[in-house]
Design brief:
Mean pLDDT: 85
Number of domains: 5
CATH architecture of the largest domain: 2-Layer Sandwich
Distance between the termini: 122 Å
CATH superfamily of the largest domain: Ribonuclease H-like superfamily/Ribonuclease H
CATH topology of the largest domain: Nucleotidyltransferase, domain 5
CATH class of the largest domain: Alpha Beta
Strand content: 5-15%
Strand order of the largest sheet: 5-4-1-6-9
């Protein structure tokens, strides 16, 4: 209780004797009603214990004022009751319906003829309203049933190649039954790193749980959804490889994975608080040491049992690990080309039974590629990965021999070059199909650099040699063109002993007109031009006279 000065205590007592309400005294003195109520109770207690004796305020006042006869005994004024008291049951029923004070006040006025103010209802409701504590159900799990995973922040660690320290990402995986945890720090995260950390946790525990609870970070969940969340493909494939089911928590609901949240906080506050590490390897070594010597040997506060003992009990219920680890991949979308292949890393792979022009998913592994249906993800084809760019992984019996408009256009251009060029291109297409169509384009394009008869002769030689290749035709065309240039130069320099003379121009021909005809034409054109100039000059000289 606030200790007031003597004159204020005397003022409060005087007003109370005059049956003034606490609210009125507060308005007059500016003292809080809580303090006024406390002094009222104090004065009443003093008078009840010592009747006829001055109260505390009167004793203080007597030090400065002469004594006066005791006032007649007056009972303290009862606490003012609220106008809402007769309607207590109605107000309590409305509060159970989660209605606010304003709605209750309006119903009191409309239905019960309430004559008080809204503030009276608000104060009365505030006294009645009891905040129910939030309930947290304690979840119970069977051994080997659930594992919870999440990211946190590790201790400051030196960045490789610099003097700067940065906090890496702390990955924690905790078995829900035993609270045994796997802890590891990494500099960065990705879809594959997130899946690799799960795999390391499974290896650390020596088995797999039934399902994993995680939040909706992008490394695990691409599209959060309460009913059908979309998982990252690499992460989903990793869990499927280990026969583990993912159970993403609701958005903004961290209590569902409170065990791993507590494990991260315990790691940060106990193991890593105030520490620095010179490398990420030293950081992980310390976490492994702390888990083995301290975290696993602790007595869990809820279960009152040692974590290591509970883990030994749970180990037998974990599912066995597969013999081979997860083979990670990257996934791209490709369109099936008109040769029934897809292009991956500058190589072609057969995609049948996928239709030409359709979209397929290509999973690229370290040693193989898989072609899958885009909508369902069903496996269509598997091929060994090509060792070098430009390879064509297409069985001979799947090569397409269906000439399209483009193929017919190339063969028509080859026929314009010559008979031998057309024959060679037809043989190339018959042997290699659409895959060899680029060679046809190359042979046809040689006429841009060499005469057509040279290209045709080169194709004839290639047919005789039995080498059906664009590079062979190119080499033969270059050789023939060089020979032709050499022959022309030899003929121009007179190396054969003949006298080179300048050919005479033809003077008489049916298409060449006589010289007199050209003379008459020029004379007629000159006369027409002179007449035009004279008429223009005459019109210019007569124009001012007409204006006058």
């Amino acid at each position: 209780m606030n200790v007031l000065k003597p004159h204020l205590q005397t003022t409060i007592w005087t007003l109370l004797e005059a049956n003034a309400s606490q609210r009125e005294i507060e308005r007059v003195t500016g003292i809080s009603r809580h303090t006024i109520r406390a002094y009222q109770q104090r004065f009443a207690a003093e008078r009840a214990n010592c009747p006829g004796v001055a109260t505390g305020s009167e004793a203080v006042a007597s030090q400065t004022a002469p004594p006066r006869p005791p006032a007649p005994a007056v009972a303290p004024a009862p606490l003012a009751s609220s106008l809402c008291e007769p309607h207590r049951e109605f107000i309590q029923a409305q509060l159970r319906l989660k209605r606010n004070a304003m709605a209750i006040f309006q119903d009191l006025v409309d239905q019960h003829g309430f004559a008080g103010q809204y503030n009276s209802v608000k104060r009365f409701v505030a006294r009645l309203r009891q905040k129910e504590p939030e309930q947290f159900d304690r979840l119970s799990f069977l051994p080997g049933e659930e594992m919870q995973v999440d990211y946190g922040e590790g201790a400051p660690t030196r960045v490789p190649g610099s003097d700067r320290y940065r906090k890496p990402r702390l990955f924690v995986a905790t078995l829900r039954y035993s609270r045994a945890s796997f802890r590891c720090v990494v500099w960065k995260s990705s879809h594959q790193i997130w899946a690799e950390l799960h795999e390391r946790a499974f290896r650390f525990f020596g088995g797999c749980p039934q399902y994993v609870v995680l939040d909706n970070l992008k490394e695990g969940v691409i599209t959060p959804d309460l009913y059908e969340p979309e998982l990252n493909k690499v992460y989903a494939a990793t869990l499927a490889h280990y026969h583990v089911v993912a159970d993403p928590a609701r958005v903004r609901d961290p209590n569902r994975k409170g065990t791993v949240e507590h494990a991260i906080g315990h790691t940060q506050a106990t193991a890593l608080k105030g520490r620095r590490f010179e490398s990420i390897e030293a950081h992980n070594e310390f976490l492994a040491h702390w888990e083995k010597n301290w975290a696993a040997k602790r007595i869990h506060g809820t279960e009152r049992r040692q974590v290591q003992a509970m883990f030994e009990e749970e180990r037998a219920y974990l599912k066995a690990l597969p013999l081979l680890g997860m083979q990670y991949f990257s996934e791209v979308e490709r369109t099936v080309c008109d040769d029934s292949c897809v292009r991956v890393a500058h190589s072609s792979y057969a995609a049948r039974p996928a239709a030409i022009g359709s979209k397929v998913l290509v999973r690229i592994y370290a040693q193989r590629i898989e072609i899958r249906e885009a909508s369902t993800g069903d496996l269509l084809r598997t091929h060994p990965k090509a060792e070098r760019p430009g390879s064509v992984v297409l069985p001979q019996d799947e090569r397409v021999f269906n000439p399209s408009r483009e193929t017919r256009y190339i063969l028509r251009q080859a026929s314009e070059i010559g008979e031998h060029a057309a024959r060679l291109c037809e043989l190339l297409f018959a042997i290699e199909g659409r895959v060899g169509q680029r060679k046809l384009w190359g042979i046809v394009a040689l006429v841009r650099r060499y005469p057509a008869h040279c290209v045709n002769a080169a194709c004839a030689q290639a047919l005789e040699q039995g080498i059906y290749s664009y590079k062979r035709v190119l080499a033969l065309s270059e050789g023939l063109f060089a020979q032709a240039l050499a022959a022309i130069e030899a003929h121009a320099s007179g190396d054969n002993g003949a006298v080179l003379t300048t050919p005479e121009l033809t003077q008489q021909h049916g298409l060449i007109r006589d010289v007199d005809e050209y003379g008459d034409l020029f004379a007629h054109a000159a006369a027409t031009a002179t007449a035009t100039v004279s008429s223009t000059t005459a019109a210019t000289t007569t124009a001012p006279g007409s204006l006058a």
